[in-house]
Amino acid sequence: MKVLVINAGSSSIKYQLFEMPAATVLARGMVERIGSEQSGLSYHQAGQKGSRDVQAGDHQQAMGVILQALTDAQIGALHDIQEIAAVGHRVVHGGEEFTDSVKIDPDVLDSIERFADLAPLHNPPNLTGIRAAQQALPEAVQVACFDTAFHASIPKAAYLYGLPYEIYEQFRVRRYGFHGTSHRYVARRAAALLERDPAASNLITCHLGNGCSITAVKEGKSIDTSMGLTPLEGVVMGTRCGDLDPAIVFYLTDKGYSIEQLNEMCNKKSGLLGISGASNDMRNLVDLAEGGHERAKLAIDIFCYRIKKYIGTYTAVLGSVDAVVFTGGIGENSPLIREQVCSNLPQIGIEIDSKRNAGRSGEYLISAERSRVRVYVIATDEEAAIAADTYQFAR
Ligand code: AMP
Predict the structure, then answer these.
(1) 214-267 pLDDT tens trace
(2) What distance lies between CA 147 and its chain's CA centroid?
(3) Which band of pLDDT confidence, cut at 50, 70 and 90, is reported for residue 189?
(4) What angle do CA 232, 158, 193 make, to 5 degrees?
């Protein structure tokens, strides 16, 4: 069965076509700069990699570009788009309603629209992507997979903030958490590597990319995570500030900053970029720090320190930890960050083996033989997880 996975952003649609249940990737690519004069398609299909200019004035046209590429005489992976039996969509916010992936119906669409309030940058383009796919492939089963769903198991004591209870009742202000599909995927892979039932493994999963979140997984279920009502909370990220004293916002408002400026500052100008004054990209920061750039080094130090604090906190929350997992662009590719995050943690049973940590690709153990807690690098694959969920509905 052919399953198409769609990740629609505000100006791009990423796609991957899978043959299920083997999860073989038949094609993948992306339409970028949707709505601009110069939209582009990049693809990896039929053993060929390439890119070309395309016409994609809106998401509907971009979806047409993707389906045309999938059936193209030279690079196509399909003879006919009707071969696509199901489409799985990444949706960022599922509020309190969606605790798992769901088959999309008009009620589901209404709910996704309602939660746009909580994820204004993500849910509207996700919804546009769904509508475009429904129109282009009316016969295919459409499934929504939510970034928040894996965190639906977080208990109330961990998801409520110390605000008046009415704020939760009235506005549903609470911790939701994100990157759930990634945390769930690497948690299952880690259980497999540990040769344990997922329901019997306690893990701390660190998704470190441009956005970063840490999750405490107890007996296979998320019981706490660092991101909150929005993806702004938690560790320091590429351009997001992470945890703050909320009074800083009042203080800076008093100093003349508008709410819009603070929103922009905290989301787009803070984190690694704001501290270093140089870059939000960890590769650049590592190069700069090695060349003696003081603030690049400071940004890396703060980044690692905050992650270390979460690992300590979640060790206390879990009681016993079987493994720590690193994933995401930074987690999968930076031995230096992994080493610094895990330095001086033998008292909580975490010891890295420098040789093992030196880096390869895929899934591997990096903890020392004597380390009580195992430490793994596991390449995340959110698309494969979405394809697996979608396949379950379409079967
Ligand atoms: P993601 O959002 O998961 O694509 O991750 C993006 C982040 O991963 C960026 O900060 C990249 O600089 C970082 N990254 C990718 N490769 C490396 C690497 N070899 N060393 C350090 N950081 C990396």
Answers:
(1) 999 999 999 999 999 999 999 999 999 999 999 999 999 999 999 999 999 999
(2) 7
(3) very high
(4) 85
Q: Options 3.30.420.40, 3.10.129.10, 3.20.20.70, 3.40.640.10; which CATH number does 197-378 get?
A: 3.30.420.40
Distance from Cα 331 to the centre of ligand 1, integer Å: 8
Average pLDDT, the chain: 96
Atom of ligand 1 nearest to the CA of 337: 21
Per-domain boundaries in the chain: 2-146, 197-378
Instruction: Strands of 39-146 (E only): list them.
Output: 39-45, 48-54, 84-91, 102-103, 141-146
- Ligand 1 neighbours, Cβ below 6 Å, are 209-210, 238, 281-283, 286, 328-330, 333-334
CB atoms under 10 Å from CB of 318, counted, come to 18
Instruction: Specify whether the CB–CB gap between 125 and 9 falls below 8 A.
Output: yes
Pocket test for ligand 1, best of 273, 281, 287, 330 (most atoms within 8 A of CB): 330
CATH number for the domain running over 2-146: 3.30.420.40
For residue 211, the ligand 1 atom closest to its alpha carbon is 2
Cα 116 to Cα 124: distance, rounded to the nearest angstrom: 6
